[in-house]
TrEMBL record:
Organism: Olea europaea subsp. europaea
Compartments reported by the entry: Membrane
Signal peptide: none
GO molecular function, one term: glycosyltransferase activity
Protein name: O-fucosyltransferase family protein
Amino acid sequence: MIAIAYVSNRSMLFLSTLLNYVPFLILFIKICDAVAVAKILNATLVIPHLEVNPVWQDSSTFMDIFDVDHFINILQDDILIVKEVPVEFYWSTREYYATGIRATRVKTAPVHASANWYTENVLPVLQSYGIAAIAPFSHRLAFDDMSKDIQRLRCKVNFQALAFVPHIRALGNSLINRLRYPAQGSEVSTNYLEELDNTNKKKGAGKFVVLHLRFDKDMAAHSACEFGGGKAERLALAKYRQVIWQGRVLNSQFTDEELRSQGRCPLTPEEIGLLLAALGFDNSTRLYLASHKVYGGEARILTLRDLFPLMEDKKSLTSSEERASIKGKASLLAAVDYYVSMHSDIFISASPGNMHNAVVAHRTYENRKTIRPSMALLGQLFLNKTLTWPEFQEAIREKHKNRQGQIRLRKTGQSLYTYPAPDCMCNA
Ligand SMILES: *[C@@H]1O[C@H](CO)[C@@H](O)[C@H](O)[C@H]1NC(C)=O
Ligand SMILES: *[C@@H]1O[C@H](CO)[C@@H](O)[C@H](O)[C@H]1NC(C)=O
Ligand SMILES: *[C@@H]1O[C@H](CO)[C@@H](O)[C@H](O)[C@H]1NC(C)=O
């Protein structure tokens, strides 16, 4: 009993978070699991420090992205969270762990470890030293065989405790306002609550669709598919594959046709345009493009823009002064797109991946509509050179009837953060 009291009052869980890919989305999941592990151990959690992401070169910290006070407040009845390690543990730094074997560092957490693993292997460290650092920590907590309370806590962290910092929400709300009331225009308000309030009062809000599109060079090259850009593009992508992965791209063993019919080729902006048109969207649809950088630039999205002239993005809707605080910061740019995606009437993503999974799950949790394109069907239809437009449209509509937000239950081994039902839902 004494040991436990000691643990709950003094222990710290210090987590290393080396980020990769779209940074803040990976972090979502790590921080949720960190809270769960702290709960299992009755330990205090120290807000993690982020390392600069080598790919995105983004030095944004947890506190630059998320509203930390909100985070701590929402979880105050669940666990104790502190922003910094207390003075007596100041020696417990990233450098300290990087430069030698340390008794307070736990390196052996297996992938998808059980709750028992933590009480057997980390609790003794906490009891002896008052602090433990678990690194690496990605995917180190199982999704199955966890108590209901722990699952609920993970849901609470992911869907309620993590809120973006006020300036991201303010910018996001301005974008949403301008999409809903295109004629009025509005200044970015630093008081996001006020702006949200005004939004609710105004009448005749227009609807908008968010299209999440990831079609960057990295992805195009890695898919090993062809994208109709002719010989020059084929050579450019082949060269990129050679330089970046020394040719080791798993998909290379398949032909373009095989990959396409399996739905393994990213959809091009043009293909997505045809999909949207087949589903009944038209030139009166207000479309927001949530996208980082499109390989091929404006030329590649020309067809999409022709079909949907009311297409907007972060850049078209804001001035450069308004974007100054997020300029060049991949995680903040992604956060703004995430925020707008969460508030759209319809969300459609043509790019499976972290952002896709996170937004789809969050929208499921909030019961908002999402369209999930069938990549395999699209691949097959685009290969068919004799298909007419009415046939294409018919096939698309038929296949997408039950891909418009119907809840899919999590299966064993799947992530709670991708499939929040049933664990995060009421009466589960
Ligand atoms: C944590 O606290 C709870 C409630 O006080 C207790 O039931 C549980 O055994 C504790 N767990 C550990 C690992 O100390
Ligand atoms: C939208 O499409 C309709 C029907 O194809 C056409 O008549 C109309 O001119 C278009 N409007 C704009 C603004 O392009
Ligand atoms: C192409 O589509 C047409 C019309 O649906 C169909 O009859 C034909 O079999 C398809 N061809 C291939 C190669 O799948």
